Amino acid sequence: MRLVLESATVDDAPAIAALRTAVAEHLTRQYGKGPWSSVSSERGVLHHLRTSRVCVARGEQGLIASLTLATKKPWAIDRTCFSACKKPLYLTDMAVRPELQRTGIGRRCLEEAQRIAREWPADAIRLDAFDAAAGAGDFYRKCGYREVGRVTYRTTPLIYFEMLL
User: Fold this and answer.
1) Nearest Cα to Cα of residue 122 among 88, 147, 145
2) Residue 128 forms beta bridges with which residues?
3) Which of 66, 68, 104, 138 is the most exposed place for a label (fewest CB within 10 A)?
4) Is the separation of the CB atoms in 151 and 130 below 8 Å?
5) Confidence class of residue 29 from pLDDT cuts 50, 70 and 90?
């Protein structure tokens, strides 16, 4: 199955918020309540649409995946842990429909994110993952992202990853 990420529109905001919430609820059922348990809102998605590039993938079931790429550093990122570069992008809010996880969609989303980043142009993709069983650290490692640091931000243990382009 070929997967293409396209820019989300305002009309996608309710579906993106629902997808993010479904993923959070799925993780909470699997691993218990944690920082991954937050509910997304349409208002939050609309904010991201104004400040970042929100991308979506569609399938027969409708919206199947989403991620956000931004030039602005998220609050939980410490730049000093990453390689020096001039134009990093920050990947946040990646979500794949729970019933479609572990089917290769997430990997293909990251490949598409790299394509988009090169066209941006950017020279790196940076992200963080929860340093917990509910986190996606192993997934990012398997996709070629390099771990560059571990921190605790406001009591939440995180692992930083980067992909140099």
Assistant:
1) 88
2) 160
3) 138
4) no
5) very high
CA distance 17 to 22: 9
Q: Quick one: DSSP state of residue 1?
A: -
Task: Give the single-character DSSP code of 72.
Answer: S
Q: Could you give the angle at the alpha carbon of 104 between the alpha carbons of 122 and 136, nearest 5°?
A: 70
Burial class from Cβ neighbours inside 10 Å (0-12, 13-18, 19+) for residue 76 reads: middle
The mean pLDDT of the chain is: 96
């990947």: which residue's tokens? 91
Q: pTM for the full model?
A: 0.95
How does pLDDT run across 98-117, given as a tens digit for each residue?
A: 999 999 999 999 999 999 99
pLDDT, one tens digit per residue, over 49-62 is 999 999 999 998 89
Delineate the domains of the chain, giving CATH numbers in brackets. Answer: 6-164 (3.40.630.30)
